[in-house]
Amino acid sequence: MAARRSRRSASSASTPAARRAPPRPPAARPAPTVAEPRAALVSGASRGIGLAIAERLAADGMRVLLVARSGAALAEAAARLPGAVAHAADLRDPAAAGVAVDAAMAGFGRLDLLVNCAGATQRGDFVALDDAAWADGYALKLHGAVRLARAAWPHLKAARGGIVNIAGIGGRVASADFTIGGSVNAALMNLTKALADKGVAEGVRVNCINPGSIRTDRLEGRIRTLAEARGLDHAAAAEALAAETGVARFGEPAEIAAMVAFLASDQASYVQGAILDVDGGWVRAV
């Protein structure tokens, strides 16, 4: 019996469990990768509000395709912005929007944000504004935005990105000398709501900003015109124009850019279909 127990003990000592190899060290984890920077396309980016938006997005770490008609101004801006690429295009051309979006995808491999900021419309007496003036106003600001949004939509959907349309307070407050711009801005606001409705199901956030009187070359031109018409110096004309809209001061392009940056951020992930008046209190209606 003792011999059998001895043999059994020896047999147990030679089982696989007893001969188990020491535990293997844990597999090395892959090195962490840096998240790919997001990418934006900004139209009307050669000056004014559009340029300020491009500057802010680049400062926030986004790669930006700057789109406008002025190739020289775009190249100068892109040269001083990290991750920026200039793309000269006339968005009144029906083919230009698709080419611009293709350029963004070729350069960045993704598209997270579209900012529609292109478009200046002609002011003047309604009777004096001919069909060509109306067609030009709609061709750039509205039709350009429509075509860019349509071309960019599949890429924005894939990235769960968004669109910010820059319309204008004239779409809310009618003015006899701003019939083209007012109607275009109102149409752009309606487009925002329609695309936001589509975006709820498809993961694309679409919002709109209505700037009030912002210190741009365009506003400076209005101040000069008012100064000449009323025999005022520049400062007095600026003060008179601000008083007519009931605001304490004019806004700065950087203030519109800051709002775009917010809408493009995760902090605004629940903001969908919003039309935000950034106007210093110009619009008092509910």
Automatic annotation (TrEMBL):
Ranges of biased composition (kind: Low complexity): 9-20
Organism of this sequence: Siccirubricoccus deserti
Gene3D superfamilies reported for this sequence: NAD(P)-binding Rossmann-like Domain (3.40.50.720)
Protein name listed in UniProt: SDR family oxidoreductase
Entry similarity comment: Belongs to the short-chain dehydrogenases/reductases (SDR) family.
Domain of life: Bacteria
One Pfam family hit: adh_short_C2
PANTHER family (UniProt xref): 3-OXOACYL-(ACYL-CARRIER-PROTEIN) REDUCTASE (PTHR42879), 3-OXOACYL-[ACYL-CARRIER-PROTEIN] REDUCTASE FABG (PTHR42879:SF2)
Region (Disordered): 1-35
InterPro entries membership: NAD(P)-bd_dom_sf, SDR, SDR_fam
